[in-house]
Amino acid sequence: MSGHRKDWTNILFLCLSPVAGIVGTIYYASRFGVQWWEPALCLTLFFAIGLSIGSGYHRYFSHRAYECHPAVEWIMLFFGAMALQNSVLQWARDHREHHRFVDTDRDPYNINRGGFWAHMLWIFYKEGPDRNFDTVPDLTRNPRVMWQHRWSRAIGIGFGLGFPALVGALFGRPLGGLLWGGFLRIVLVHHTTFFINSLAHMWGKRPYTTENSARDNWFLAFFTHGEGFHNFHHAFPSDFRNGIRWYHWDPNKWLIQSFRATRLARNLRVTPPPVVENAKLRIAAATTEERLARIPSGMADDLRARAEHARRRMDETLRLWKEADARHSELKAARRAGQRPPSQAVREMKLRMRACERSFRATRQEWQAALERFRDAPAGQSL
Asked: Which domain holds residue 342?
C-alpha cells in the first residue's frame, strides 16, 4: 500500500467510531440509564459478528481449514460484512499475504513497523496500484464472495447500524440501540480483531515456532474467540483449531465442530498430533542447547550424552507414532471414500497409535528428567 496516500475515509471512521461508541454510549447511559436489552444486543452482535470473522473470514475463507455448506458461507459473509473490516476478498488477500511474508516489508501489518502500525495504522493508507487478487483465485471464482465484495459496505452500514437502531426503536430507544449494538459493538469487534495483528505478535510464548513473531496468549484468546493461540496458528495455519487442548478457550473451534455435528461442515483439517509434538520438541531442544552452552564443557559433554540417549529413544517412538497416525488416517480416508477396510484393522491401528503416543510421552518424560539436573544449575556450577 502507498506510504503517501492517506485513506481519509478509514482514518475518520476509525478515529470517530470510538468517540461515538465509547464516549457516546457512556454519555447516553448516564443521561437515560441502561436497559437490559442494550448490553445484551451489544454482546449478541459482538459474538455473532466476531465468530463470523474468526470462523468465516479467517479459518474458512483465508485458510480453507474446513469445507462448509453454502448456507454457512452466506451467514459468514453477511455477518462478516457487518464488522466493517472490508469484504472477505480483501480481508483474505491481506491475511494470506501476512502469512506468506510475515515480519517483512511485504507483510501488510508487519509488527516490525511498530505495534500501532500492526494494530491499525496500516489501514490509514490506500492500497497501491499494484494490489490485486492474484493470491485469492479460489475466492474470485466464488459467486457468493464476489457478491459480498460488491455489497459489503452497504451491508455493514445498512444492517450493521440500521438493525440495532431498529431493535432499539422497538423498545422506544433507537439511539440506545444504535450506540450499544452499532457503534460500541463496532469498536469492540474492530479492536479485538486488531489485537491479533498487534498484541499477539508482541506478548506471549512461542512453543511451536520461533521463525516469526507470533505468540500464544491465552488471556488474549478470551477476547478474540480463541484467536489468541497465535503461535500455533502460524506454525499450522491450515488447522481449523487455534486452541488444541480441550480446555483452550476457542469458540471458533467449537462453532466449526457444531457445523460438522449438524452436517453443515466436513473435512475439518487437523494437524497430526505427532507433528505438533515434533514442533514443540524442536523448540525445547533448541532451548536445551542454549543452556548446555553456558555449562563447563566437561560437565556438558556428560549431560549431553545422557540427554542424547533419551532423545534418540524419544525420536524413535515419535517416528513410530507418526507412521501409525498416518496409516490410521489412510484407513479413515478409505472409509470416507466408500471403501471398506476391515474393522479389525482400523481398531488395531487405533490401538497401536495410542500405544505409540503413550510410549512417546513416557520417553519424553525420561528426556526431561535427564535435563532436569542441569536446567536450573547456574553456569559453571558442578552437579
From this structure: 273-375
Q: What does the pLDDT look like over 325-358, one tens digit per residue?
A: 888 777 777 777 777 777 777 778 888 888 888 8
Residues 282, 237 within the same domain: no
> Does a structural domain hold residue 241?
yes
Q: Is the dihedral of CA 69, 72, 76, 78 positive or negative?
A: positive
Last residue of a domain, one of 227, 249, 266: 266
In terms of C-beta density within 10 A (0-12 exposed, 13-18 middle, 19 or more buried), how is residue 274 classed?
buried
Mean pLDDT for all residues in the chain:
89
Residue 382 lies in a domain: no
What is the Cα–Cα distance from 378 to 201, expressed in whole angstroms? 31
pLDDT surpassing 50 at residue 219:
yes
Region 120-149 average pLDDT: 93
2 in any annotated domain: no
Neighbours of 296 (CB within 10 A): 11
Which grid cell sits at 360? 512417546
With respect to residue 381, please indicate whether it lies within any of the assigned structural domains.
no
Half-sphere exposure of 212 (CA within 13 A, CB side): 24
183, β-bridge pairs: none
Same domain, 246 and 168: yes
Which region among 150-159, 187-196, 307-316 has the lowest average model confidence (pLDDT)?
A: 307-316
